[in-house]
Amino acid sequence: MKKIYIAFFVLLSTLVGTGCNSTTLSNTVTEAERNNLEKIYSFDVTSEKLLFVVKSTGCTSKEDFELLYQVHQGKYEFALKRLKPDMCRAMPRAYPVSFKLPAIGVSIDNIIVLNPIDTNTPAKRSKIGY
């Protein structure tokens, strides 16, 4: 009976740990992640959320991204990381992806976005979020 409790505890710990890893916010941005960030067309900050505009060829969704952040020298550094590539072949278009800001006191004055900016914005914009 004791072995069943141990096995149950190990299984439960694994499930809880896996659930924690799937969060959309992380408070570390590694050097490898910095070198492999999604190119964005633009970003915008409101009092409650951070909006990124990214390239989509038809199969992009918010679940394909993770928002990474860290506080460095009093500034919030944000990075948008793509988890799943968009394998569709439609004409490229701008697609908005928004995330709730992780902390109170984050404003446009203390935010740094680490993603590179793609200046080749497609002419057609998605209607989602606009």
List keywords for this structure.
130 residues; alpha/beta; four-stranded mixed sheet; three-stranded antiparallel sheet; 2 helices; 18% helix; disordered C terminus
Query: Nearest-angstrom radius of gyration?
Result: 18 Å
Strand order of the largest sheet: 1-4-5-7
Determine the structural class based on helices, strands and strand pairing: alpha/beta
Mean of residue pLDDT? 78
What fraction, in percent, of the residue positions are helical? Answer: 10-25%
N-C termini distance: 58 Å
Low-pLDDT segments = 2-25, 126-130
Count of DSSP H/I helices = 2
Structure description:
This protein has 130 residues and is an alpha/beta fold. It has helices spanning 2-21, 31-34, and strands spanning 25-26, 40-45, 49-56, 65-72, 75-82, 93-100, 111-113. The strands form two sheets. Strands 1-4-5-7 form a four-stranded mixed sheet, with no helix packed on it. Residues 2-25 and 126-130 have low confidence and may be disordered.
Short recap of the structure:
By secondary structure, the chain is α/β, with parallel strands linked by helices. Helices cover 18% and strands 33% of the residues.
Strand and helix map with partners:
Blueprint: H1 2-21, E1 25-26, H2 31-34, E2 40-45, E3 49-56, E4 65-72, E5 75-82, E6 93-100, E7 111-113
Parallel strand pairs: 1-4, 5-7
Antiparallel strand pairs: 2-3, 3-6, 4-5
